[in-house]
Amino acid sequence: MMKFRCLALWLALLVFTGCQSLEPGIGKAVEFKDLPGWDKDQHAQAFIALDKGCIHLAKKPAWQVICASASNLGEPGDEDAKQFFETHFIPHMLRGEKGTTHGMITGYYEPLLHGAMQADERYRYPLYKSPEDMLIIDLTSLYPSLKGKRVRGRVVGNKVLPYYSRAQIEGEEMPLSGQELLWVDDRDQLFFLQIQGSGRVQLPDGKIIGAGYANQNGHAYISIGKKLIDMGELKREDVSLFSIKSWLKSNPQRAKALLNENPSYVFFVLRDNPETGPTGSLNVPLTAERSLAIDPKFVELGAPIWLSTTYPGEIQQPLQKLVMAQDTGGAIKGQLRADLFWGTGERAENMAGNMKQPGEMFILLPNDKTVAESNLKD
């Protein structure tokens, strides 16, 4: 009898909660008016980022109508862009583990480094291209559970071993010698360039070229900020880009060992026109303050995301805007984990370097009704 009473109580709870699941992932649909700050955003800026994404998204059936409508709209103002999103999408709340709705929002940017095409006493830290001897092994056909995961390795004799770690790449043997793209004058800045994924390099003659993400060595990303917390060197609330840089500068004898705690290593490709901006994982140029890095296991690349968080700083000003999921990152893991791209320059560095905010995210899914209506017209 007790089992039946428990079952009845459970069913009653489902009725009174509207059968809402607290499972992580995409939650129930909500109204646009329920999105915090929706009416205050400059939707035309978000439309520009979406239009860039349509270069690739238009090939997907659910996006064909959306991208065709975006093309016909041209360059809309805020009100027309707002109406576009409300017509073609339905917002859903994103949930994390145990039904939580708040996650961690950080930021990234394009740093500016100083470098040269030839090494000398000043410029002695290399940016490497994707190594010629690095194997990329896709095991999906044998192990479907590994879909999307690629193993990086190298052949030694008749064995495939993990590819070189950061410590090995930057060690005395220098196994990637001869595969340099250019050299920069600051080791720590090079490390953070790899964390950001892309940047700009100013040459001695003043010319600026772009350095974009090309590949990665296959090792897992390890946060040196977390390592400093574990070592008792920094308090959790004090960790930022700037506090980590300060520690590295103040501890030159220990700095290299700390950097090597992160075995992940990024390889680059150069672009002559840095003004086009870095290219994200969706393979389209990122838009400052409108492109977001997400975990593609939980959020589809290209999806519009309503971001509700705060600007970094002591005064918690609301940061509520529509952004596009156009990038990924080694440290971005989970349903409610995201990284906002701030662009380049001093402001972008300050915002990205200090951003560590709790926030909510709502994913805008294509409105099947508009797709169906289009098919009927055809």
Following the backbone from N to C, one meets helices and strands in this order, namely HEHHHEEEEEEEHEHEEHHHEEEEEHEH
Nearest-integer average pLDDT = 89
Q: What share of the residues does DSSP label as strand, in percent?
A: 25-35%
Number of helices: 11
List segments where confidence is low: pLDDT < 50 over at least 5 consecutive residues.
Answer: 1-21, 374-378
Q: Main beta sheet: strand number and arrangement?
A: 6 strands, mixed, barrel
| Fraction in helix | 25-40%
How far is the N terminus from the C terminus?
A: 59 Å
Instruction: Indicate the radius of gyration in whole angstroms.
Output: 23 Å
Overall body shape: globular
Number of strands: 17
Structural class: alpha+beta
What strand order characterises the main sheet? Answer: 3-16-13-15-14-17
Provide an overview of this structure.
- There is one protein chain.
- This protein has 378 residues and is α+β, with helices and mostly antiparallel strands.
- It contains 11 helices and 17 strands.
- The strands form 3 sheets. Strands 3-16-13-15-14-17 form a 6-stranded mixed barrel, surrounded by 4 helices. Strands 5-9-4-10-11-12 form a 6-stranded mixed beta sheet, covered by helices on one side.
- Strand 14 and strand 15 form a beta hairpin.
- Helix 2 packs across helix 4 and helix 8 crosses helix 9.
- The chain is globular.
- The protein starts with a helix and ends with a helix.
- The N terminus and C terminus are likely disordered.
